[in-house]
Structures are given as C-alpha cells and as structure tokens.
Amino acid sequence: MTDRATRLAAGSVGIAVTVLGLKAAAWWLTGSVALMADALESVVNVAAALAALVAISLSAAPPDANHPYGHAKAEYFSAVLEGALIIVAALLILSEAWGAFANPHVPDLPWVGLAISVGATTVNAAWAVMLRREGRRLRSPALLADSRHLMADVVTSIGVVAGVSIVALTGLLWFDPLLAALTAVNILFSGWQLLRESVGGLMDEAVEPSLLARIRSLMSQEGEGALEMHDLRTRHSGRTTFVEFHLVVPGGMTVSEAHEICDRIEAALKAELGSAIITIHVEPEVKAKHQGVLVL
C-alpha cells in the first residue's frame, strides 16, 4: 500500500507540472488576470505535490527507538503545508486582482487560451477523482488532501473559464479581475478547511462519528463472554487507526479465556479498519462502570 501511495504522489508531481505549463500558456496568450490566478494556484499544486511525496516517503519508514508508533503523522505536516500554501496563493491573487481593477485590459486570443485551460482542467479533474478513490482505500491524509485541493482547483477553473468567456463576449473588462478575486476567496476557504482538518489529525482528534459507531457495534458483537467495555479512545495517525479500551470480564475467568475474547475483538476491528493498532486493558467485574459498550 505504501508503494502504491508513493507512486500516486509521484504521479501527482508530474500532473501538477503538466497542468501548470498548460495554464501558464493560457495566461501568457491572453494576459487575463483570472487565468493568471488559475495558473498561480497550479504553482501551489506543484509545491504541494512535492511536499506530499516527501511526507508519504517519510511516513513509510518503520518504527524505531525514537518513533515507536511509526512516522505516519508526517503526512499531516504535508497537508498543513499545503493548506498554508493555498492561503498564500489566494493572497497573491487578491493583490493582482486589485491592480487589474485599476488598469483593466482586453484579453488577447481569449478562445485559444480558454481551450488550453479547459484541457488542463479536464486533466486535473480526472486525477483528483482517482486520488480521492485511492486515498480513501489507502487511508492516506496526504493523497486525500491533494485530491481535495485539486478538486477545488477544478471548480475555480470552471468558474474562470466561464468568466473569461463572458469578458470576451461582452467586453466587460472589470469582470476579469472580479473573477480573479472571487477565485481567491474560494481558494482561501479551501486552504482554511484543509488546515483545520490537518491540525485535527496532529491533535489526535477521535475518529468520525459513523466509524466510531461501527467500532462500538463490533466490540459489542464480538465481546461474548465479557461484561462491558469502557473508556474507549480512538484516533488516526496517517492511515493507521488506534483503538484503546478497557474490557471487563467475570472475576473467575481465566487469562486464556479473556485473551481469546481480546483476540476475537481485535480481529474484527482490524478486518473493518485495515491498518489498526488495538490496545485492550482487561479488568475484573469489580471494575465495571456500567457504562460504555455493553456486550450483546
């Protein structure tokens, strides 16, 4: 899985460079500020794709003495950097749009530039869809962040193409910098959302409610012989999910019988979660809290 994620990240670098070249050509041919904004975001795409490649390579390193839980969180640093780069790009676009409001000009060769931009957007959309599918399958925050960023780029590119077409057809020159400013606002929102989610991963946020409900259900179903499970804690670290809880068993149960229950629960959770580390603390019934997950 790690090799697959690394290949996808390397592919993202190649796609980002190709799309940047196409969008830069569209901007150079037209002089449109909106197409410039679209191209500037692709510069961020290249930097972000490189950061994701480095992060995924680092996260694949096995646990060592200084990092006994592995290096999976390196991917979150990539996503944080990508979010910060998106915000920087948006601010640069706003600056250019402000200047273009003061000195608007007619775009040159608008239809040729727009055709190139449409081609670049199509490439981005196809790659973003594939990255989202593979990112979910591989549970890779870096690939999912890249997919989300590319899809936001696709949405803004569609808006830019539509807007520059309006400028070319109507001669409303002020619409070009306005569209660039709107693009920047959309990019800012995308960057903020990505930063928030990435920081959440670094801060060990619990898994999403739907997955937590599934975990609790599996614990209840596979815990036959136990009395209850409490103090459940979960978190993600890259593509690995950590699950910790206390398992309460009858006081007279043997260690072997309790271990069998633990093995059964652990196997079910790993089958559901894929890459997972399960920690179970076994307690006698006097430690029961009469809350948490009850055994069916």
TrEMBL record:
Stretches that traverse the bilayer: 7-30, 42-62, 74-94, 109-129, 150-172
Residues annotated as domain Cation efflux protein cytoplasmic: 211-285
Domain Cation efflux protein transmembrane stretches: 13-203
Keywords: Membrane, Transmembrane, Transmembrane helix, Transport
InterPro entries xrefs: Cation_efflux, Cation_efflux_CTD, Cation_efflux_CTD_sf, Cation_efflux_TM, Cation_efflux_TMD_sf, CDF_Transporter
Main location: membrane
Subcellular location: Membrane
Topological type in the membrane: Multi-pass membrane protein
One Pfam family in the UniProt entry: Cation_efflux
Taxonomic superkingdom: Bacteria
Family: Belongs to the cation diffusion facilitator (CDF) transporter (TC 2.A.4) family.
Family annotation (PANTHER family): MITOCHONDRIAL METAL TRANSPORTER 1-RELATED
Protein name (database record): Cation transporter
